[in-house]
Amino acid sequence: MEVTYTWEIGPMDVSNELMGDDVNDLEDAIRAIHWKFTGATEDTEAWIYGSAALEPVDAENWIAFENVTEEKALEWILKTYADVEGESLEEAQARKEEQINQLIELKSYVTTKQAPWA
C-alpha cells in the first residue's frame, strides 16, 4: 500500500518580542505553528493535526515573518517534536508517518459515522 503524505501549514501565532539593550525588537515573532498532516492511499485518507509551540525567539537566528518559507516552518514543527522525543528530524517525520499508517490501517476495517447528535 503506497501512502502519499502531505503537510499543510496553517496559521501561526506571533508576538512582538522586546529584546532589550542594543538589539532591535522583533515584530511578529512566530511562537506557535498550527499544522495538519495527511496520508492518502488509493482507497482512503487519514490525518492528524496539532500545534507546535516554538522555543523563545533567538535574535541572532530570527527570520522576519514575511521571509519564513513553508520548508522552514515544517523544519521548526519537526524540530519541536524531535526535541521532545530526543530524535532527529527524520525520525520525527517517520513517527508522524507511522501515526498516519496506523490510522489508515484502522480505517480499512471500521466505518465512520456521524455522532448521534449531529
Task: Please provide a written account of the structure.
With 118 residues, this protein is an alpha+beta fold. The chain has one domain. It is built from two helices and three strands, in the order βββαα. Helix 1 packs across helix 2. The radius of gyration is 18 Å and the shape is elongated.
Give a short overview.
By secondary structure, this protein is α+β, with helices and mostly antiparallel strands. The protein has helices at 70-85, 89-107, and strands at residues 4-17, 26-40, 45-53.
Please provide the count of β strands: 3
Count of helical segments? 2
Helix/strand/pairing class, anyone?
Answer: alpha+beta
- Uncertain segments: none
Key words describing this protein structure:
elongated, 30% helix, alpha+beta, single chain, 118 residues, 2 helices
Task: Give the helix/strand layout.
Layout (H helix, E strand, L loop, with lengths): L3 E14 L8 E15 L4 E9 L16 H16 L3 H19 L11
Helix pairs in contact: 1-2
